[in-house]
Structures are given as C-alpha cells and as structure tokens.
Design goal:
The chain has 380 residues and is mainly β. 10% of the residues lie in helices and 41% in strands. The chain contains 5 helices and 24 strands. The strands form 6 sheets. Strands 3-2-1-24 form a 4-stranded antiparallel beta sheet. The longest helix is centred in the first third of the chain and has 13 residues.
Length: 380
C-alpha cells in the first residue's frame, strides 16, 4: 500500500497560520500534532502577525456583550438582509462565578480594555481577570495589596502589549479625588506583580484605554491648562510614559467636548461626539497616526433622525462599510448607516436587562501562557 505523501512541517504551519481562528479551533480536533501546534504560544504569535499583515483586522473584530448569557457578535454586519448576524453564546469562566454551578458573578464589573484578543475584566472587589472569549480561556491576576491610590479617586484601566519584552501589561491610572494628580501602576504578566511607574499632570476622561500602535490612548485635559482643552494622550507600553499624541479637531464645538468618545476603526483611532443633551452625532477618524492634519470628518447627523433613536447611545466602532456600531442603552446593538439613514438592530438574550460591551479581535493568544499562576481555564 502506498503511503500518503506528507507536506513539510513549515508549509503546514504557513498554511494554518493564514486561516481564521474559528477554523483553527475546529482543526485542533483533526490530530494530536495539529492540536499541539495550534495550541503553541509561538503559533498564536505567528497567526496574529499574519492577520495584521493581511490587513484583516476589520473582519476579526467582535464585540463581547457581558450579560447573561455571555454573547459575542461580529462587528461587521452582514451585507445581505437575509443573512443572520454572527452571534455566539458563551459561558462565564468558572473562576468569575460565586460558585461553579451558579450564574451569579463574584461582584459588579467593568471593562478594563482589550488587546490582541485578550479582554481585561475588573471586578469591584479588586479582582482582575484576562479573558480570551475566542479560545475560552481566562486567568486571574495578582491583587494589588500595597496600593496607595486614593480609594475615593477615579480609576482608568487599559491592556496593552510591550513588544520589547514580549509581554502584556495591565495599566491602572488613578486620579486623586482632591488634586489634579494622576498616578500610574502597571502589572506585567510575566512577573504578575504591581509596581508604580509615574505621576502625570493630566486628567483622563472616558473609559478603558484604546490600544493602537503600541500604546494605550485616552481623551485627557492637561492639568495646568487654564482653557481645559481636550487632547488625545498615549501611554507608551515600552517607555511606560504618557505623551500628548494629538489635539482634537478644531471644528468640534466646545459644548460637545464632554460628550466625546474615543473608539476604533480597524487599527485607526476614531472620535465620536454627541449624546445625552447634544442634538447631533458626528464622527472623526485620525487617518494618519499622530498627525493632527489627518483628522477626517466621517459624518454628522441629527440624532433624532436615526431610526430607533434612544436618549442614551454609545458609539463602539466604525466598520469598513461605513456603519457605526452603537450601544442603545445597554439593551440593543445597532448598526447605523449614516449614508442611507438605516439601522440593523440586534437584541441579545440579556437576562440582566443590560450589557457591557467590549471590542476585541479573534486570536489564539492564551492569557495563561505568560505566567504559571493560572487559576482558571474554561474550554467549554
């Protein structure tokens, strides 16, 4: 009997590294060597690099809806009305639950950012997890028992990657309740310990930091600026320092400044303003990183003309087809096309009656591969 010819291993690796994550997860069941290969952290890095090289970041972006049940939806809506959204129902990792068999989580939570497929989830009781919903793995990070942050202050989190050390870092910035001082602490996964790095004369605004181009980004005001003008600041993951990246567009009215939200489109920064008492919604894209003159106004529209308009809207993402992914009051996801003035609405199962959204990319990066103190892995 003739044996079936075998492809060289390097060719197999090359081919597999170009496939979407969802197929690779299925291919882990083909044979033990493929399972071992696809589970290898080095292969995860190769696959992530290939996806960025092919500029397929748009198609791999998803939004995790933290509710019950946990759900994940593709950021790009289908182009055909007859096609259903790519929606996946997940289970919370056991370590995040009060008991393994319950649906109740250990505490209230907030999103602390995402990077390369990992999502940082911060619980009110101080516990912090990294979770990859694509491969359904999670790990708990060390609790900071020696922090001197003002407990009455305002906290901002972010998750980024340091290419110089091949390590992921959780950044926690604490704004003092009675001063303009912002203190910064970092946890690097390989050491799994918190350390203080700097104080910055800026006041951060918004939610979790947006990871782009090797840095975390926030809207901010310089503490010593009498005009209180907003800028975008970047926290470099290698240098571990803040610097001012770019000012916001001059054309944004000052009355809208406190309604601004920093988001993404593929691997570029986007700025949305409008919401609450503001009558219109407009969007800007920074087409060239760090270049103020590259701000491009994408659209402007009166919010009450958006089909299904609600009082509370939060812009999450700008798609490659020119749609805006909106969070309607924590209850519906809406894809809004400003050119056609049309919407597509997705209502999750949502037993909590609300959800918290987190934008992430599909990847094979395991949160447990950078240190050995993993407390939980969920492969369901």
């Amino acid at each position: 009997m003739e044996t079936v010819p075998q492809l060289p291993q390097d060719i197999i690796v090359n081919i597999l590294s170009r496939l979407p994550v969802k197929y690779l997860i299925q291919l882990k069941c083909v044979c033990k060597p493929w399972r071992s290969l696809i589970s290898d952290p080095q292969f995860a890095k190769l696959h992530l690099a290939q996806s960025k090289k092919k500029n397929t970041n748009f198609s791999s972006h998803r939004v995790l809806l933290i509710t019950l049940p946990l759900e994940s939806v593709a950021c790009e809506s289908p182009s055909d009305d007859d096609l259903e959204l790519d929606d996946v129902v997940l289970d919370f990792p056991a370590a995040m639950k009060k008991t393994p068999d319950s649906d109740e989580l250990v505490d209230d939570l907030e999103i602390g950012g995402s990077c390369n497929g990992l999502i940082c989830i911060v619980f009110e009781n101080g516990r912090i997890f990294l979770y990859n919903p694509t491969i359904r793995e999670a790990t708990e990070l060390a609790i900071d028992t020696s922090s001197t942050f003002d407990p009455r202050g305002t906290f901002f989190y972010g998750l980024g990657y340091d290419f110089s050390t091949d390590d992921y870092k959780v950044v926690r910035a604490g704004r003092h309740s009675s001063s303009d001082k912002t203190e910064v602490e970092i946890l690097a996964l390989k050491r799994n310990t918190w350390r203080r790095v700097e104080e910055a004369g800026i006041l951060l605004h918004g939610g979790a930091g947006i990871y782009v181009n090797g840095a975390l980004h926030w809207l901010a005001i310089r503490a010593n600026d009498p005009n209180k003008m907003f800028v975008i600041v970047a926290f470099d993951m290698v240098e571990e320092k803040f610097h001012e990246l770019v000012a916001i567009p001059d054309n944004i009215q000052e009355a809208k400044h406190h309604s601004m939200v920093l988001t993404m489109s593929g691997d570029t920064l986007c700025l949305f303003c409008g919401g609450g008492y503001i009558s219109d919604l407009e969007a800007w894209q920074l087409k060239e990183y760090g270049v103020r003159s590259s701000w491009n106004r994408l659209f402007g529209v009166y919010r009450e003309t958006i089909p299904g308009h609600k009082y509370w809207e939060n812009a999450l993402y700008y798609t490659k087809t020119g749609e805006v992914l909106l969070d309607y009051d924590g209850r519906d996801l809406v894809w809004y096309d400003p050119k056609e003035n049309t919407t597509r609405i997705f209502t999750p199962q949502n037993d909590w009656d609300w959800f918290q959204p987190a934008i992430y990319v599909e990847s094979l990066v395991s949160p447990t591969s950078y240190f050995n103190s993993s407390l939980s892995m969920d492969h369901s």
